[in-house]
Amino acid sequence: MAPHTIISYDDTQNDQDALMLGRILGQAGSQLMLAYVRHTTQAQRSREELDQQAAQALLDRGALWLGDDDVQRRVVVNASTAAGLTQLAEQEDADIVVFGSDYRTAAGHVAPGRSAQALLDGGPTAVAIAPANYRTDSARSINWIGVLPGSADDAALETARDLASYFDAQLTDAHRGIDMLVVGSRQEAREGRVMVTAQAQNAIEQATSPVLVVARSVPIRFQTLVTA
Q1: pTM tops 0.85
Q2: For residues 45-55, b (16+ Cβ closer than 10 Å) or e, as one string?
Q3: Distance between CA atoms of 181 and 14, rounded to whole angstroms?
Q4: Which sign does the torsion angle of CA 112, 117, 119, 125 carry?
Q5: Residues near 49 by Cβ (< 8 Å), separated by ≥ 6?
Q6: Is residue 160 within 8 Å of 182, Cβ to Cβ?
Q7: Distance between CA 50 and CA 30 in Å, rounded?
Q8: What are the b/e assignments for 77-116, b being 16+ CB within 10 Å?
Q9: Helix (H) or strand (E) run with residue 53 in it
Q10: pLDDT tens digit string along 134-179?
Q11: Angle between the 13-27 and 45-66 helix axes, to the nearest 10 degrees?
């Protein structure tokens, strides 16, 4: 079964970085969905309809940028973006939630924003974070995949191997000069939940490539989608 990936999108440039990373995961066979979390509803019906239409139009622009008119789109209403995405991920049985980096992040670097950080602290799906300005190169390729030493349980290793197989990429334990970094969850995490060590958090914040943090004991299987 194809992995199901939710891309958190709010029409900002950093979330266009998330679209680029989502596009790469889509190349590996992942089924994509765009999601936007509205934080309030309007008491007046006409105004609520206008806000909902604006949210749908925002996701339509994301689909246009992604180049996929058929991509699924969901508008979620929740006071918290992280909680709304968690709810959607559980409803859709999603495997990955993709974020752009915090808006203040220097180009080429990774910094989890508040919502991404919340899902790194016990979220129910893998979390992927794109570096700032990742959107600017439409010819991104995956040639080297790093696996963070000390964080790699079997789920992270299997995920990295499957991605490497799909992209014909090389695996390394380096986290510099790579095209994607795979990080495992800490041993104390509940099965199926994401939770990172302080070492892993530091490596994520020093990364210059996309980061994929895998939930404890739940590998993401890409290789079954390959038809040579």
Answers
A1: yes
A2: eeeeeebeeeb
A3: 19
A4: positive
A5: none
A6: yes
A7: 32
A8: ebeebbebbbbbbeebebbbbbbbbbeebeeebbbbbebb
A9: helix 45-66
A10: 999 888 899 999 999 887 789 999 999 999 999 999 999 988 899 9
A11: 50
The length of the chain in residues reads: 228
Distance set, CA 62 to CA 21, 32, 190, 209, 219 (Å): 13, 12, 34, 22, 28
Residue written as token pair 């939630």: 97
CA dist., res. 98 & res. 9, Å (int):
9
At 32, phi and psi to the nearest 5?
Answer: -100, 150
How many angstroms separate the Cα of 164 from the Cα of each of 94, 136, 158? 21, 23, 10
Parts of the chain with a pLDDT under 70? 223-228
**Alpha-carbon separation of residue 135 from 114, 121, 198, 226 (angstroms):** 21, 26, 28, 26
State the residue for tokens 């689909």.
63
Q: Is the dihedral of CA 200, 204, 208, 212 positive or negative?
A: positive
Residues sharing a CB contact under 8 Å with residue 120, sequence separation 6 or more, in sequence order? 112, 127, 194, 195, 196, 201, 204, 213
Q: Give the tokens for residue 39.
A: 């934080």
The residue type at 126: A
